[in-house]
Amino acid sequence: MRKTLRIRALSMLPLVATVLFVIVMGCAPTFAQSLTTGAISGVVTDQSGGVIPGATVTAANIERHGAPRTAVTSSLGTYEITLLDPGNYQVIAEAKGFKKEEQGPITVTVSQTSLLNFTLEVGSATQVVEVTANAQLIQTENPNTTRR
Predict the structure, then answer these.
(1) β strands within 11-86, DSSP E
(2) Which residues, including other chains, have CB under 8 Å from residue 78's CB and lie 6 or more apart?
(3) Which CATH number fits domain 37-138: 2.40.170.20, 2.60.40.1120, 2.40.50.140, 3.40.50.300?
(4) What distances in angstroms separate CA 37 from CA 69, 70, 117, one per listed residue?
């Protein structure tokens, strides 16, 4: 009985190895992309400091004029737009019942996350608040520091 189980286990080894190989190789492109792209993340709040869940944040590459990337804020008001090609981005945050806010140019660099927070003012969606500032980079090498 033990010999039969051992033979069955050994016969399954090539199948298990093949499945593991396919899983690892399938993850390789995703890992490689993070080595050539950057991200923008932050929090969207109102003027009183309350978070705004469900706000839309859109980043558009200024130089390449490609398709903009969009994220929706979580219940904590946080967002993250990942896999952005390096370059300068114009970023817009908007939510129902608030004025739209634009910030940029925001520089995205390889393997870095630019921190970009928004504070939306109460008002109609047709009003736009434009802020020009440099985003802070999050240091990915040292988790204990967030500013350079």
Answers:
(1) 38-46, 56-61, 69-72, 78-84
(2) 41, 42, 43, 51
(3) 2.60.40.1120
(4) 13, 16, 20
8-state DSSP, 112 = -
**Nearest alpha-carbon partner for 93 in 69, 120, 131, 68:** 120
Token pair belonging to 124: 């109609």
- On whether the pTM is more than 0.90, the answer is no
- The conformational region for residue 11 under phi > 0 = left, psi -120 to 50 = alpha, else beta, is alpha
Domain-wise residue ranges, the chain? 1-34, 37-138
Amino acid at position 109, single letter: T
Alpha helices in the chain (DSSP H): 2-34
Per-residue confidence in pLDDT tens, the chain, 148 aa: 666 656 665 566 565 555 555 555 555 444 444 689 999 999 999 999 999 999 999 999 998 878 899 999 999 999 999 999 999 999 999 999 999 999 999 999 999 999 999 999 998 655 566 666 666 666 656 555 544 4
Mapped onto helix, strand or coil, the DSSP state of residue 99 is coil
CA–CA distance, 60 with 92 (Å, rounded to integer): 9
